[in-house]
Design brief:
18% helix, 4-stranded mixed beta sheet, alpha+beta, 4-stranded antiparallel beta sheet, 30% strand
Length: 206
């Protein structure tokens, strides 16, 4: 774990993996909720970092955090969201070939995986979901699409994600959902937030 003071009121913590980010973010939330962290306005996880903004003494807090022993997350930790998916994506057959299975087996593999929102970005409501074992990771497309339909379930590298709106994208599209990922009139606006667990259920099968 490495800590870096960023400006007068921010602290950046670097770790080595997405699992460590998730565990550190959860520990920071626990300590903040318990009043043991001190004033912190925002906690923002990313691929290998967590940013703490609105910190009164970044250097002092960084020295304290560097001494922490952060416990790993337990598999059932965090709220669970279930999203119904139709496995109708144009890259479904390609992903099945890369996995060495038939297209009809992909829903069971994805549905049997409990993902976790590691961090959010790219577009409002887009969560980067971890949980795929290394053997199931697939490369991005050689040529990105100029327009990916909203609701597309996609895979790339160690991540899965659902496009909240139509946008360009280079991930492998395996399915689609009618779930609304981002709704400013809803509280919270984002369906996915860091730490939330996500299960994809095949539409019509629960």
């Amino acid at each position: 774990m490495r800590t870096l003071v960023v400006g007068a009121e921010a602290l950046l913590i670097e770790v080595d993996s997405a699992d460590e980010v998730a565990a550190l973010h959860a520990e920071l939330l626990r300590r903040r909720d318990a009043g043991a962290l001190g004033p912190v306005r925002d906690l923002v996880p990313a691929a290998r970092t967590v940013l703490l903004d609105g910190v009164r003494d970044p250097a002092g807090l960084g020295a304290r955090i560097a001494c922490w022993k952060v416990p790993p997350l337990t598999p059932g930790e965090g709220p669970l969201v279930t999203v119904e998916v139709r496995y109708d994506g144009p890259d479904l057959a390609k992903v099945a070939r890369l996995w060495g299975v038939g297209p009809g087996e992909v829903p069971g593999i994805v549905g049997g995986t409990v993902f976790r929102v590691a961090f959010c970005g790219f577009a409002p409501g887009f969560g980067y979901l971890t949980g795929l074992p290394e053997r199931l990771r697939v490369p991005r497309r050689d040529t990105p699409r100029t327009a990916v339909p909203a609701g597309s379930l996609a895979l790339a590298g160690e991540y899965a994600g659902v496009y909240p709106r139509s946008s360009p994208g280079g991930w492998q599209l395996i399915g689609s959902t009618d779930a609304v990922l981002w709704d400013p009139a809803r509280e919270p606006a984002a369906l996915f937030a860091p730490g939330v667990r996500v299960r994809f259920a095949e539409a019509g099968r629960g």
